[in-house]
From TrEMBL:
Gene Ontology MF term list: nucleic acid binding; peptide chain release factor N(5)-glutamine methyltransferase activity
Name used for this protein in its record: Release factor glutamine methyltransferase
InterPro entries per record: DNA_methylase_N6_adenine_CS, HemK-like, N5-glutamine_MTase, PrmC_N, RF_methyltr_PrmC, SAM-dependent_MTases_sf, Small_mtfrase_dom
Stretches of the chain forming a coiled coil according to its record: none
EC code(s) of this entry: 2.1.1.297
């Protein structure tokens, strides 16, 4: 029996609601848009149109994946972050709204040469370069899979000619100095992993945890920063909301000055900044 687009949405809402999703209406519309290849903005306009059997079957498959808590970004293949849409796969960390606090902090400082350590999708580096048309940068990641995704995103955002992508374990294959170093490293402590949301089990574990106390990456990033920053250059990192004091202490131990712990839009500690003087 053929259903309308509106009926597909209603069915999806009920299924998602039955298993406890907080915003089933929004998620249902995203999934129906993906299944029907109708933009979310046009779903209301085409609500009375009949859905094909293939569209119904595709939606059922997408719903099964979402009910299994696969991230929505993996299912639809992208995530909106700052001013752009970024391709997302199982090889990359899903860009999150709280990371935009790092973008806002970085854009308060002048920079012409950027280094992004552990770039993942490239969301941080490419968002910054898009806002600074004369700036250039290096973006690194240990994962070749992540770098492949980042290359596609660099083209989509329009910064591919101004960024070099390098496979590197933090600073291992990085040379030169930079006005700005940014990073959103793995900061979840091993003991916290079992309590995470089930969606995170689909993301690369190496992008989430250091398998230790959550501070391993910050130790390496802070220690190497003075040798890779210009005089007056800044290091800015995203942190877990309880890590401000510890990460600020690592910045101080590395000799950085003007250290600050900045909040995200929810008022939680989210970014630590320090200057090389």
């Amino acid at each position: 029996m053929s259903l309308t687009i509106a009926a597909l949405i209603a069915q999806a809402v009920e299924r998602l609601k039955s298993v406890g999703f907080e915003d089933p209406g929004r998620e249902a519309r995203l999934l129906v848009a993906k299944a029907t290849e109708i933009s979310a903005a046009r779903l209301s306009l085409e609500a009375r149109e009949a859905a094909t059997e293939q569209q119904q079957s595709t939606l059922n498959s997408l719903l099964a994946r979402r009910v299994a808590r696969e991230p929505m970004s993996h299912i639809i293949g992208q995530r909106a972050f700052y001013k752009h849409d970024f391709k997302v796969t199982a090889d990359t960390l899903d860009p999150r709204p709280e990371t935009e606090a790092l973008i806002l902090a970085a854009l308060e400082r002048p920079f012409s040469r950027l280094l992004d350590l552990g770039t993942g999708t490239g969301a941080i580096a490419f968002s910054l370069l898009a806002e600074r048309p004369t700036a250039t940068g290096i973006a690194t990641d240990l994962s070749q899979g992540a770098l492949s995704v980042a290359r596609e995103n660099a083209v989509a955002v329009g910064v591919a000619d101004r960024v070099e992508l390098i496979q590197s374990d933090w600073y291992a294959h990085v040379s030169g100095t930079y006005d700005l170093i940014v990073s959103n490293p793995p900061y979840i402590a091993l003991e916290e992993m079992p309590s995470l949301a089930p969606e995170l089990s689909y993301e690369p574990r190496m992008a989430l945890t250091d398998e230790a106390d959550g501070l391993t990456a910050y130790r390496k990033i802070a220690a190497g920063a003075p040798a890779h920053l210009t005089s007056g250059g800044w290091l800015m990192v995203e942190i877990g909301w309880q890590q401000g004091t510890d990460v600020a202490a690592l910045f101080e131990a590395a000799g950085l000055k003007n250290i600050a712990v900045l909040p995200d839009l929810d008022g939680r500690d989210r970014v630590v900044t320090g200057q090389n003087l």
